């Protein structure tokens, strides 16, 4: 199975809560942003720089994958619409939609619609065509987009108060110039250097550690469930370890309801830890107090909860066709809708072996 061979193979479009739209002119302008080969944050920084406005004047409801063609909404505060209409940026396209009541936040995003081409499939790996939209239940894992190559390493360094290590890893990033300039003038002030990075980015590194711990907890939960119910499991390796999937549907409707309502901890400094959560922290060489950061208080992270499973709706699988890029192989188009915060690539891991 190969994903994202061509840019057009992975299309994502946001479903926005229309409550954000203002019927009257306002200082907040809602745009549709089409981007290719950009993370959402880097795209926003690029737009802010081109418009000569502060980064905080631009907001979005949810981050989108870099390696895809994505369409999402952003709000730009106070910028000239005519100037934006003339903006020419490589792989970025902005189209005015309407005025907005305020800046966007995560709560304004209802979900995402995906259209994904799966390539390099053998005949027996293709899925049965579905003519009517279906629903399915999928483990709510965080996937590789959350972790990138070094996000967890940076997050762990910050949690363990190894600030020089965090700065050393971050210094390789092309967006760390302000941090590096600070160190040139303030040698060994690693805390001050980190404060030159956007808070949102630093928090993302710590959240990536929380996400890894969540995946570990959910994998263990599914493993135990499958052992009790004699359900076979499928194990998929990924950059942070292993993801475990049940290979059969839940036996009864009440089990489906149970798992759709079940939550797993996102561990922070204020969780009342279970024995299993304590064990997962120990395996990852983390203590709960590591989530308290006295040197960088804004990076102290509370705990929370996340749904263990999510519901995929409007899932349609088209008939397999010959793959035009791989000889003697097949391709399929899969379309479905997800609520915010869930990963399309996890759906594909569930569907395809």
What does this structure look like?
The mean pLDDT is 91. Helices cover 31% and strands 28% of the residues. Strand 4 (58-60) and strand 5 (69-77) form a beta hairpin. Strands 1, 2, 3, 4, 5, 6, 7, 8, 13, 14 and 15 form an 11-stranded mixed beta sheet that branches. Strands 9-10 form a two-stranded antiparallel ribbon. A two-stranded antiparallel ribbon has the order 11-12. With 353 residues, it is an alpha+beta fold. It folds into 2 domains: 11-110, 2-Layer Sandwich (Alpha-Beta Plaits), CATH 3.30.70; 112-146 and 207-269 and 299-351, 2-Layer Sandwich (Pseudouridine synthase), CATH 3.30.2350.20. It has 11 helices and 15 strands. The chain has helices at 40-51, 81-85, 144-147, 151-159, 163-170, 177-185, 190-194, 199-229, 253-261, 275-283, 344-351, and strands at residues 10-16, 21-22, 28-36, 58-60, 69-77, 92-100, 109-121, 134-139, 233-238, 241-246, 263-266, 304-307, 309-317, 321-322, 330-339.
Strand percent estimate? 25-35%
How many distinct beta strands? Answer: 15
Largest sheet: 11 strands, mixed
Give the distance, in angstroms, between the N- and C-terminal Cα atoms.
9 Å
What is the chain-wise order of helices and strands?
Answer: EEEHEEHEEEHHHHHHEEHEHEEEEH
Gross geometry:
globular
Instruction: Report the CATH C-level class of the largest domain.
Output: Alpha Beta
If you compute it from the alpha carbons, what radius of gyration comes out, rounded to the nearest whole angstrom?
22 Å
């Amino acid at each position: 199975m190969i994903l994202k061979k061509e840019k057009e193979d992975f299309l994502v479009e946001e479903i926005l809560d229309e409550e954000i739209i203002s019927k009257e002119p306002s200082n907040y302008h809602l745009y549709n942003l089409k981007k290719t080969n950009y993370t959402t944050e880097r795209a926003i920084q690029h737009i802010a720089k081109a418009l000569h406005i502060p980064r905080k004047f631009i907001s979005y409801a949810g981050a989108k994958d870099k390696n895809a063609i994505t369409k999402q909404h952003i709000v730009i505060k106070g910028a000239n619409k005519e100037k934006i209409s003339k903006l020419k940026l490589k792989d970025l396209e902005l189209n005015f939609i309407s005025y907005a009541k305020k800046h966007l936040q995560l709560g304004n995003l209802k979900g995402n619609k995906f259209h994904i081409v799966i390539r390099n499939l053998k005949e027996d790996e293709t899925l049965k065509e579905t003519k009517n939209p279906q629903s399915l239940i999928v483990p709510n894992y965080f996937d590789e987009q959350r972790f990138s190559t070094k996000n967890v390493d940076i997050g762990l360094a910050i949690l363990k108060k190894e600030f020089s290590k965090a700065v050393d890893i971050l210094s390789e990033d092309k967006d760390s110039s302000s941090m590096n300039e600070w160190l040139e003038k303030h040698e060994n002030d690693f805390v001050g250097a980190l404060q030159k990075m956007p808070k949102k980015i630093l928090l993302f590194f710590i959240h990536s550690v929380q996400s890894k711990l969540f995946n570990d907890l959910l994998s263990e939960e599914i493993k135990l469930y499958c052992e009790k119910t004699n359900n076979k499991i499928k194990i998929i390796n990924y950059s942070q370890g292993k993801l475990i999937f049940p290979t059969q549907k839940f036996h009864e409707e009440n089990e489906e309801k149970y798992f759709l309502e079940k939550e797993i901890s996102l561990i922070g400094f204020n969780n009342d830890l279970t024995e299993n959560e304590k064990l997962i922290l120990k395996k990852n060489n983390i203590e709960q107090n590591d989530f308290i950061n006295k040197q960088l208080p804004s990076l102290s992270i509370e705990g929370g909860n996340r749904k263990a499973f999510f519901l995929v709706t409007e899932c349609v699988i088209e008939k397999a066709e010959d793959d035009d890029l791989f000889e003697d192989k097949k391709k399929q188009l899969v379309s479905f809708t997800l609520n915010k915060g869930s990963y399309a690539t996890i759906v594909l891991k569930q569907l395809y072996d």
